[in-house]
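User:
Care to share a sequence and structure tokens?

Assistant:
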Amino acid sequence: MVVRRLLVCLIPHLVTFSLNAQAPSGDAAVAEKYVLQAEKAMAENKWSEARIILERGADYSDVSSDISYLLALARSHFDQPQGGVLESLERAISADRWRTYSANDALLLEAESCLRLRKYSETLAILSNLPESPRAAGIRLKALMFAPGPDEFRRYMTDTLDRYPRDPEPARIFFEYLKFERFKAGKAAALNSDREDRRILDLILHRLPALLLADPELAWMAAPFVRDTEEARRLVEAYRAVNRPDPASLPAAVDLGAVEEETALEELFSFDFSGSAVTEDPIPRLDKTLLEEIEALLRDEALQVFRRNLSEWSGVIREDSDRDGFAEAAAVYLRGMLLGYSFDADQDGLPELVLDFEAGDPQRAYIPVMPESGEGGKPYYPVRDEDRRKITLRWERYPAVLEAELGDERFLSRPLSFYYNPVRFREIPGTSLLFPEADPAAMALTRRTLVANAFRAERPSREFAGGTETVELNQGVPVRAWEYLEGRMVSETDFLQGAPLVQRADLDTDGRMETIRRFRRAVIPALPDDALDIEYAESDWDGDGIYESPEPFR
């Protein structure tokens, strides 16, 4: 009896102890509050608020992997730099303190990030260690679509359609694949010439009525591949009747006669992006490929309206040149005049080239100088734009460079002698609107290039705090250098074959050059950052013309 009474008394306390052991405490409890607040904001579609909450809670990421995972999710939602997404995911996986989510959730998001970065092998490698799911299947299909060898894509597409027969995502990906294959083969190539492609397409079209319930967009995506033109038109008309038409659906609608050309243009140029944008500051935007597809379908008066509307366009035109679903280039226009351009070669969310225009002409370029790889040879993806050193280049008349800055150094070029043209300009077909086309090879600017093309370089003095140094250059080789402090010259250095020979300096800044330094004859790089190799120095401190204090250096 005593034992039974003791157990009866202890059981409630044991239960309470067990529940408390499972509940977070201390820092973990605070972290959980941040997670719950962020989840609530996301559920209410308040993604900006969720990201702010998670950034505030980042200090608790060592006790909660959920915080880092959700922060990566928020950054990805806003199309922020992939370096920040990957950093948060790495922190989440490293901490390994999961409560609501899991390492598999983080790895799936990492796979999506690798897909955007065109790291298809890495994407497939991550997925190989994850359990099958509709989301994982969609990522794998997209990676296989752009990886070499379509046979593997077709095989896995067949397996996915069998495993998830009511999931609309594989059908959407297959329509994108067919369009991508046509793009690779050329616009004149016949569609669906491959027998296996035709078999998969027939299966999807057979299931289309059921799939449309989950994804109405499949109607216009399928229409170009439906053999019966009347049936294809009915699909598009039914979609337009009950949905807010996506601008990407307009070429199919115009081609099939489901919408008048004038109506299509009105929809195209007046589309409200505020309800669909994932950016924090949405502005009107158009897709360059979409414009080309629509232009090819227009006739007579509609074509004139199209050209007039583009000539007055204010907003962004984006280009996805490799058709992988992520735009690498974007041009900003104000009433048809170019204002800016950016080119993101690796699609990490931080452009490798940014241009500013005035009156439609390039005036300034911003070009980051980044290491080619990080630790262990891994590609380096900056977390923030501020993490990158940039060359700021100014043209006097494109493509002739006036000057360039890198950090606290300034390089001035001789008139019309240094040409740098990172972009060409091409008209969007059927219009007079110019769109820049980046040349990745021309963007490889380095400090060495700036030195080689400068006749003068300016930078802060290394010896006189608050002073400036001006170096005269001849084909990248220093000839003479001066240092100024508060408007007065405090140093003058002569060079021989690019190496400093002798320096006269006013070390006490009294207005008189009392010190002479001579340098060892050694080959050193132009504009060295290291301390000068002084052989000896002598000074005339009292001004009697006698250098009474020679100072040898070892």
Observations:
- The chain is about 40% helix and 20% strand.
- The first strand starts at residue 285 and ends at 287.
